[in-house]
Amino acid sequence: MSITVNIYYTGTNGAARKFAKEMESSGTAEAIRKEKGNLRYDYFIPMADPETVLLIDCWEDQQAIDLHHASPMMEAITALREKYDLHMKVERYLSDEGGIPETDSHFIKK
């Protein structure tokens, strides 16, 4: 069962976007994508809130998340969060192994 963590980074004066750009340009985001158990690590900008960046971070299981949290990468991430004075809201979701129910599938254009 995979685990998806949505992290909303919020700052002022474009700080959240600068944080995400630095995570990408420094290679930190790409290194996280290559970690064992990482399934997704992508940043998005909510249309209604230009001072927030959403990170969708998906892992195979809790063990993969724990290994990531114990890695030196977390020090770099924490330092950048502090550099940009970001606040966070976190949501956590477990995957639905059954997939999309038939009753919902006809609403999805492929």
Structure description:
- It is a single chain.
- The chain has about 110 residues and is α+β, with helices and mostly antiparallel strands.
- The protein has one domain: Alpha-Beta Plaits (2-Layer Sandwich).
- The chain contains five helices and four strands, in the order βααββααβα.
- Strands 2-3-1-4 form a four-stranded antiparallel sheet.
- A hairpin with a 7-residue loop joins strand 2 and strand 3.
- It is globular and about 45 Å long.
Keywords:
4 strands; Alpha-Beta Plaits; alpha+beta
How are the SSEs placed, and which strands pair?
Layout: E1 3-10, H1 15-25, H2 28-33, E2 38-44, E3 52-59, H3 62-69, H4 73-83, E4 87-94, H5 102-105
Antiparallel strand pairs: 1-3, 1-4, 2-3
